[in-house]
Amino acid sequence: MIPIYKSDVVIVGAGLAGLAAARELSRAGKNVTVLTKLHPLRSHSGAAQGGINAALADDDDVELHMFDTVKGSDYLADQDAVELMCSRAPETIRWIERMGAVFSRREDGRIAQRPFGGQSKPRACFAKDRTGLTLLQTIYEQCVREDILMLDEWYVSDILYENGKAYGVVAFNIRDLSFAIFNAKAVMFATGGYARAFKINSNAHANTGDGLSIFARKGLPLEDMEFVQFHPTGLAGSGILMSEAARGEGGRLINGLGERFMEKYAPEKMELAPRDVVSRAIMKEIIEGRGAKEDPFAVYLDLTHLGEKKIQERLPELRDLALTFLGRDMVKEPILISATAHYSMGGIPVDTNGHVKKSTDELTEGLYAAGECACVSVHGANRLGANSLLEALFFGRWVGNKIAEDLKDITFKDAKTSDAEMAIREVDFLLKNNGDERTSKIREELQELMTTKVGVFRDEKNLLAAKEKIKELRNRYKNIKLDDKSKSYNTDLQEAIELGHMLDYALFITAGAVERKESRGAHYREDYPKRDDENFLKHTFGYLENDDIKIEYAPVKITKFEPQERKY
Ligand SMILES: Cc1cc2nc3c(=O)[nH]c(=O)nc-3n(C[C@H](O)[C@H](O)[C@H](O)COP(=O)(O)OP(=O)(O)OC[C@H]3O[C@@H](n4cnc5c(N)ncnc54)[C@H](O)[C@@H]3O)c2cc1C
């Protein structure tokens, strides 16, 4: 018999967004259960290095932060959401600081702020280069203090959703594959990003976009999926992130000819142009044969002029990572970097209160999302560095409070044990199927395809070929066979389920990219190199239908800043 556990709210995901919401709900006296496939402190938020934005300095202001964000987004961000987030950013920093987050300080004792790409002021508050970990530990401690039920190593594989209303999730315990239904008035997803579909990426193994695909399989839309951010500075070969903080602290990009090549691409902002601009510049240098001498598929990131004291004080983690994974000490020599898939601007469409949309103009009931898995859209076509920790922390908290208010109007719908049938069937199928395909083989082919054909530079021919190939891989997936049939910590099984999700959302990314015949932010089409506001100043809504993606569009909310040409 499948147990059915009841609570007011179930939150899927224990990163910054999920835990911030859980803390607020608990403080509001609500009974909340957090489910997470990892221990909360292993959530990807803990890997964030560089900083979190807020207009705190005397010479900065909220309107400037908003403008930088909207310009950075290539005017695709919804400006009401941007205004909400930027105007609450200073208070969000004070909130987390009061709970114990220790930020790096200036000489005069105020919170230190470093420059980040595309920002007109140094605006990223930081804790050395371990900002995400500091924030995550702080909010986790608060959740422990609240005595919130956090169930880790529980894998959520389905959502209870009928006639526009959500009433729980189905999950299995990774330790022994036992299933349970978590029945609730409200369900919030905070399942993080999805860059693992790319071969070269900066993300943790867990970032497989589970939440998105679980929604898509229920016929719910996904928004702006074609906008995947490629971070300019991943370690050569592995893609492990060298945070933008390295350039914020003064790091220079140099090609194989010894040229500081950003002079050609963004003469004013140089290395601190937004990520889409810098990534394209790096890839162009590499493609045109000006890569590093020791590795033509990389360029140099030079920090040697900063000196050991500053590097140790501000970037100790990056130094360790480069030493461990590249064998280079950034104090003594330039390191080798290249663009790496990093962040998901698109995701589950939500309004500014976190309500999930079931179409371009209708909301679901009792269903919420926040953090990187959601698309509210504060990042539009390109996210500015240090705006994402802000999004996760601010919207996590905000949506938590909204759910607490909404609960009085939501009726409890009882779950039945039969609601778990689909999730159980999926696991049974994977354990029993006796085909001749392997998870790792299909995953490698998918990742290679996404990096080479749906990467920094895109065109019709490659995108269409990629779409066909993804469909082929989805068919081959039906013929999968697992070696491990056991019930205890079966990572073979979990990886197969996650691959199913990756294949789903890869189709959304590619289909959206095929249809968007313009270049905007991170989506660059060599066959349509210009932004086309007349035809494409709009959000993409994709729906999974008959093994393909149906596309609709929705208008962008423009309040203060009319689209302009974007120059840096
Ligand atoms: C290397 C790196 C550095 C970064 N640095 C910065 C930075 O300096 N500044 C900045 O603003 N942004 C940065 N970012 C981005 C930022 O860290 C993330 O966008 C943000 O932390 C996401 O938080 P989240 O709460 O949405 O998701 P996450 O922290 O990723 O949490 C996702 C949660 O969902 C759970 N989950 C997922 N699927 C399931 C499932 N099926 N069942 C149960 N649980 C599930 C996971 O266990 C996890 O608890 C960085 C990103 C990377 C990759």
From TrEMBL:
GO terms for cellular component: plasma membrane. Substrate binds at H231, S243, H342, R383. The active site is at R275 (proton acceptor). FAD binds at residues 13-18, 36-51, 210, 372, 388-389. PROSITE patterns: FRD_SDH_FAD_BINDING. Belongs to the FAD-dependent oxidoreductase 2 family. FRD/SDH subfamily. This is Succinate dehydrogenase flavoprotein subunit. It comes from Lebetimonas natsushimae.
